[in-house]
Structure formats: structure tokens, C-alpha cells
Specification:
- The chain has helices at residues 2-16, 19-26, 41-48, 50-69, 81-97, 110-120, 122-139, 142-160, 169-184, 186-194.
- By secondary structure, the chain is an all-alpha fold.
- The chain has one domain.
- Helix 5 (81-97) runs parallel beside helix 9 (169-184).
- The protein is globular, with a radius of gyration of 17 Å.
Length: 210
């Protein structure tokens, strides 16, 4: 049990590494006081451009892969590998969303979640990422793509998994993570309903920059 707790803590700490904040500060930008105040790749894109945003997205996704694939090796044998990965994956995503290094603030969990599910169900995840990219390209609103991908992923896992949805723990993980992502996008959902959600690449007004 002690090793299991250690695994969850290490996964959480891996997820807590605030790559976006660190890179922003290295570039002279404090993301907490810029744009939306979020340290994820979308706010990085608005503040520092596409190349830096892609780097942050890749690093955050890498946290999900590491936390899911490697940290589970610390398990103590009391749980099967699938259950260990479930716990590690959930811990690393929670770390990305509520980082201990950022006073329990963080990103919205999308990039780290993408890394987690690339490690667990790559085919379903690639399709979800393609859906995300297509919707962002069509609507120029990142949150639409993120929410749609989070909603679609459990269905994709259920359809594509050889284990069947109710026997595959990744299906349940996708449901839980999807709920967390929707919760982290509460303000985005409100702005979408009001027609005020920001579009990518749009010049921010002085009011939005406050």
C-alpha cells in the first residue's frame, strides 16, 4: 500500500510540473497575469506564439505519457497493471490541473490528458485529437474542440476497444477525465453560451488584457 501511495504521489508531482509557466517566465511573461491567466498551451499561444505553444503542449502531453507508462512500475503488486495505470493517469492529470507548485492552480488538463490516452488507447486518442483539430480549424475556438474531444473519447474507446467498453478500465477513466475537463472549462462553457468565447489568433482588446 505504501508503494501504491508513493506511485500516486509521484504521478501527481510529475503532472504538477508547470512547463507553461516556466517557459513563459523564461521568455519574460507571467502567464498568471496575461490573457486568461491560464498556464496551458492556449494562453501560451496568445502570449508567445504557435511554436512555443506547441512545445508546451508536447511537454504537457509528455507528462501524461510518463505518468501513465513509467510511474505505474512503482506499484506494489496488489493491483493489476490496468488499475495501477488508472490511478497513475488520474493522479498525473489532477497534478496538471491543480499543481502543488502553482498553489493548486494549473491548466485545463487537455494536453496532459491527451498524453495519458495516447499511452493507453492510441487509436481512439488520435481520432479524438483529429476531431479537436478539425473543430478548432472550423470554428477558431479551442474550447469547442477540447470539449468535443473529451465527450467523444469515451465513445471511441468503447467502440474501438477489443475488451468492450464495460470491461476496459480506460473507458471509465475517459469518463472521469472528461468530467474533469468539462469542470475545468466551466467559464469557457459560459462564454460559449453567451457567444463571447475568444477565437484563436484574434487580437485581444484592452479590456480582455486586464
Amino acid at each position: 500500500m505504501l508503494r501504491l501511495i508513493l506511485m500516486a504521489v509521484v504521478a501527481y508531482l510529475v503532472g504538477s510540473i508547470p512547463f507553461g509557466f516556466m517557459i513563459g517566465r523564461a521568455r519574460g511573461v507571467d502567464l498568471r497575469t496575461t490573457g486568461s491567466g491560464n498556464i496551458g498551451s492556449t494562453n501560451i499561444y496568445r502570449a508567445l506564439g504557435l511554436k512555443v505553444a506547441l512545445v508546451v503542449f508536447a511537454l504537457d502531453a509528455g507528462k501524461g505519457i510518463v505518468g501513465t507508462r513509467l510511474v505505474a512500475m512503482l506499484g506494489d503488486g496488489t493491483l493489476d497493471v490496468a488499475s495501477l495505470r488508472f490511478i497513475a493517469a488520474l493522479a498525473v492529470i489532477l497534478g496538471s490541473m491543480a499543481s502543488v507548485f502553482m498553489r493548486f492552480r494549473g491548466g485545463k488538463g487537455v494536453a496532459t490528458g491527451a498524453g495519458v490516452f495516447l499511452a493507453l488507447e492510441p487509436v481512439a486518442t488520435v481520432i479524438a485529437i483529429a476531431l479537436w483539430a478539425g473543430l478548432v480549424a472550423a470554428f477558431k475556438i479551442v474550447s469547442i474542440g477540447s470539449l468535443a474531444a473529451a465527450a467523444a473519447l469515451p465513445l471511441l474507446v468503447a467502440v474501438l476497444s477489443s475488451m468492450g467498453s464495460f470491461r476496459n478500465p480506460v473507458f471509465y477513466l475517459a469518463l472521469v477525465v472528461g468530467g474533469l475537463i468539462f469542470a475545468s472549462h466551466r467559464s469557457n462553457i459560459g462564454r460559449l453560451l453567451q457567444g463571447r468565447e475568444k477565437r484563436v489568433g484574434r487580437q485581444r482588446s484592452a479590456e480582455e488584457q486586464r
